Amino acid sequence: MGLGVVAAAVAAAVWVLRYWCSPPCPAPTTLFLAGAYRGKVPTFEEPLSPTPAGTTHRLTEAMFKALKGVGVEGASVHLMVRSDATVEHITMSGPLPPGLTPQRLRKALEEASTPWGAQVEVMLQDQRLVGWVRAGSVEYEINLAPGPVPGPSRGKVALVVDDLGYRLKPARELVALGIRITLSVLPWAPHAREVAAMAKAAGLEVLVHLPMQPRAYPRLNPGPGALMLGMSPAQITKLTMEAIARVPGAVGVNNHMGSAFTENPAAMATLLEVLKRKGLFFLDSLTSPRSCARKVAARVGLRFASRWLFIDHDPSPGAIRAQLKRLLRLGRLRAAVVAIAHPYPQTIAALKELAPRLKATLNLVGVAALARVPAPPRALARRPSGPRPSSHPSPHPP
After folding, report:
1. 7 or 267, which is more confident?
2. Among candidate residues 254, 261, 315, 320, the one with its CA nearest the CA of residue 292
3. β-strands 128-135, 182-185: how paired?
4. φ, ψ dihedrals at 106, nearest 5°
5. Region of 54 on the Ramachandran plot (φ > 0 left; ψ -120 to 50 alpha; else beta)
6. What number of helices (H) and strands (E) belong to the chain?
7. For the chain, what is the radius of gyration of the CA atoms?
């Protein structure tokens, strides 16, 4: 008799949820917000896609071809390759040909990397042409200098910690580090407001870590309050406004999962228009190499930044320390770097260990200092069909 009553009550609750929520309904896990959350913190992370075998070799050949096309001979290019579990990082440095402009180099790199959907940036810095090319989990640094390549300058680094709001202890430990970090708070987490207030009191920036639909949905659940591709513009707008209201003082938004959502131009346009009206910027966590967020931000006129590396996608202590040391190197190589970490105990332990070195070596800033309205994407000429000739027989050192 008692079991029958319980079963009937559960069935009634499910019916009510289905009746009142227009599809897709927020995950029932939102019900825990009625009281103190004492369960295990959900693991919502989205895995990175590995780079297919052979992609790096073909892309590096394309990079050599592009450099040769603007007057940099392959034999004069110094190549340095560093790999870890999720990223292959390649530095290409060489002589700067007379008259080469950032625009011409960027166009050459964009055209060469079109088949891989790469993102490209080039700028003039200290009489050097520096830039980067990012395609999936392959990243290139380009450094062309007149005469010998000078020592790297000190760039700006923003360190973001995602997934906060389920526990107060990690937020307290991060604030106590005494370094400038940005706290990104899940809006439907039980302690979202408290973490936002804690960060504000410490003079730290806060982001809304907005859940969005991943490609693997429904097998991979982005958690409560997620923006879904089945939602209307009005639903996306309403849910985004509610999420922003739950994280007082937030200066921007970054995506939690969202590999499917950030690939959809219409959905992203609705979201970014809301952020523009609210005076916020968007940080693309880049959970998909096919994200259209940068292009949509350029069209909307919204300030934008994008993640350069994850600190703890491999959560083993050794890998985390290696990524933090890599961040120290990148902070000297690039003008701007955004790194994302998570409040894992092993991540916080590594940050405590390296905090003095991070503070002394890096120019740590909030993400807002790096957010800019992107330049409109350039129209690229269609590549001729047929096989691509190889301009450099063996781009990798033996």
Report:
1. 267
2. 261
3. unpaired
4. -60, -45
5. left
6. 10, 14
7. 23
**Domains along the chain with CATH numbers:** 55-145 (3.30.460.10), 156-370 (3.20.20.370)
Integer Cα distance of 154 and 327 in angstroms: 12
DSSP SS3 for 203: coil
d(CA 354, CA 159): 13
Ramachandran angles phi, psi of 173, nearest 5°: -65, -40
Residue 260's pLDDT is 95
Which residues lie across from 233 on neighbouring strands? none
146 — alpha (psi -120 to 50), left (phi > 0) or beta?
A: beta
305 φ/ψ angles, rounded to the nearest 5 degrees: -145, 165
Q: What is the pLDDT of residues 314-373, one digit of tens each?
A: 888 988 998 898 888 778 767 788 999 999 999 999 999 999 999 988 999 999 999 999
CA–CA gap between residue 339 and residue 201 (Å, rounded): 23
d(CA 103, CA 122): 8
Residue 150 contacts residue 173 (beta carbons within 8 Å): no
140 CA to centre of own chain: 16
Distance from C-alpha of 36 to C-alpha of 58, rounded to nearest angstrom: 53
| Residues 350, 187: Cα–Cα separation, whole Å | 26
310-to-230, 235, 368, 371 alpha-carbon distances in Å: 29, 31, 19, 18
By DSSP bridging, strand 88-95 and strand 78-83 are: antiparallel
- pLDDT one-digit tens code per residue, 232-258: 999 999 999 999 999 999 999 999 999
Beta strands in the chain (DSSP E): 78-83, 88-95, 119-125, 128-135, 138-145, 156-164, 182-185, 205-212, 252-257, 281-284, 304-306, 309-310, 336-341, 363-364
Identify any residues that bridge with 159 across adjacent strands, giving them in sequence order.
339
Residue 289 tokens, joined:
């190499």
Tell how far CA 266 is from the center of its chain.
20
| 34's tokens | 């009625």
Provide CB contacts within 8 A for 164, sequence distance 6+.
Answer: 170, 171, 174, 183, 184, 185, 186, 189, 195, 209, 343
